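We store sequence with structure; for instance:
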Amino acid sequence: VTIETVEHCMSALRGLGIDNVLLKLHGPELPCGDGSALPFVDAIRAAGIAEQDAPRRMFKLMETVSVEEGDASIAAIPADSPGGMRLMYDLDYGANATRIPHQAWSFDPARDDYVAEVAPARTFSLKEEAEALWQAGLCRHLTPRDVLVIGDEGPIQNEYRFPDEPVRHKMLDAIGDLALVGTIVECQVVANRSGHGLNRQLGMKLLRIVQRERQSRKLIEGRAMDARAIGRLMPHRFPMLLVDRVLELEPGRRAIGVKNVTINEPFFQGHYPGTPIMPGVLIVEALAQMGGLLLSQTLEHTGKVAVLLSLDKVKLRKAVTPGDQLVLEVETMRATSRSAAVKARALVGEKVAAEAEIRFMMVDQDFQ
């Protein structure tokens, strides 16, 4: 499922400090409103905002991340920013500077008023850009009264809400695009001529860093299920028990576990002498065991064990060698009282070693 034009709504949510919300949408995109985030701010406030007891999810950036394309760039820099992400935006339209002069603006969520200073800033385009869209049959429902269309004399059939409204809207967009990271990143963002494409590329880089750090923390601290608990649920025993620890487990939904691959694994004696590589079928077996652990935690599967039924879309993408740590991720695709299927992948670091869709038959447990 793909949802378009989410940046203004995401910007409003981040600007209001909301990080836990359920949005229901009928259609492929969010409504445009007046081209600003203000309609979303008003709707959110009308729905009501409640403070929760759970701690806010924050992430302190410790390395510089940047994206460049031609003259445009955007970078996230480590900074002491306990209020969240500080932003600086430099807007330079070059040859069109007579219509949109050079503008620069900064926003600090701990100091500035998002609702008054950022949310009202509207989408804008040059007259030629708007005409090209209309001639192509796009955005015909929008007129210069709906968005800022800027000609030689300034906005056509409209007027600025701020003298520097264009750069404020660029700031609004950047806040919304980077909110898709899913957590508040403490850092300083510096943008020059960046648009949605570059913003989202930076967001993806930040998301990977956040996921990597959280995964590392789970590997160190996580213990949703230890070896003894695994042994009580699984019929497998050495040398065929291939899950050492479960880090996360959401019954009926998803689970993450670990297999530590050491040189002492018995299969390395013959696969292959001098070039030890973990057999691909055993990587898939480890994923199947992880899937079985996930399925065993649902109420309807109490007292049952998952038996491998079939494998689909199996891909072995990377050799696994002694010293590697296999991170096993499984997600439920469907489940009934008699059968189930999971989507699974095994990673070494950030690289996928194997992936598969695995089907199981649920049979009565009969082991001690």
In short: The radius of gyration is 26 Å. The domain at 227-364 is CATH 3.10.129.10 (Thiol Ester Dehydrase; Chain A). The longest strand covers residues 351-364.
